[in-house]
Amino acid sequence: GSVSMYNATIADNQASGVIQIGGNVTLVSTLVAGNGSVDYSNNGGSAVATNSLFQAAPTGVTGANNIIGQDPNLDPNGLQANGGPTQTIAIVSATSPAIGAGTNPLNLFTDQRGFVPTAAWGIGAYQYGAVAPAAPAATLSAANVTVADYGLTSYTFTVTYASTAGINAASVAGAVVQVDPPGGGTPITATVQNVADGGNADPFGDYQSITVTYSITPPGGSWSSADNGLYTISLGGPPVVDSNGVAIAAGALGTFEVETANFNFTKFGLIHNFKTRTWNGVVKITNNGDASITGPIFLVLTGLTPGATLLNATGTYNGNSYIEIPAGTLDVGQAISRVLSFNQAIVNYTPVFYIGSLGA
Question: How many Cβ atoms are within 10 Å of 48's Cβ, its own excluded?
Fold first, then answer.
């Protein structure tokens, strides 16, 4: 038969380490040391080692990038509780030839202890200088719903599950993500739309990050001003865990704001004021939605004609001039008007509205 050993340690056995009689053996980044008088003896068969360490010279082994006849500086106490679920034999000296001399062809995220290497992979099951991974985390990316989203029938957001120790992919599939509307409304269970794996998988099909795109249908079937408020996205269901079995805490992941409306926007022609040498025009905003809107309302002028300047601008947002309209409450069907003052007669722009605050 065939046996392959990757990032393994075979050490401190009394009579011998490995005695091979026939078959095929592959050793990669494996440490064989301190095994009585024989670390490795091939008595018939194929044995190929790469990036491995043999304290005593092996017989019948071929390969490249191996370290032969050097002491790896293993803990003389042998198997100890060095962290993780099982005992390991530690490398106890920073001068060990095994440090940084290995490779990681299986894309392991941790050593046997579940610790994450902070430098180049060494030889063996114990990685010198590796550290316990940080707790796994879920990161939410959820955009606010704005006036431009009025009437949309679907809302999507992403949750990225990540851990340097690797995220158990099967556990992500069982996660339950809910969106809680403002005012204690009925939670909306999100549906998985897409799963994107970050990087390469380890031998168990786990990834260091997994980003899931979720979607919901707005409470009324589409976004309207009746849905405005703060929504909370929460993680529940069976826990999402890393490769060490550590769970991501259930609970709120974050929020997004719904501040949408259906505005009818009318702009009237510019009139020249000879005294002030300005061009002034009136704009009217009408609430055509299905609920009252609480201001202020921010009118941002995007794509403004080159050379034109909004002289009575409140400020700039993303490089565009805007005017703040301090409306208290704009009821359904109610309109509000404001004067825009420019430095020239020919002015074109596309209006973008925000409610409550810029960017919301």
Answer: 15
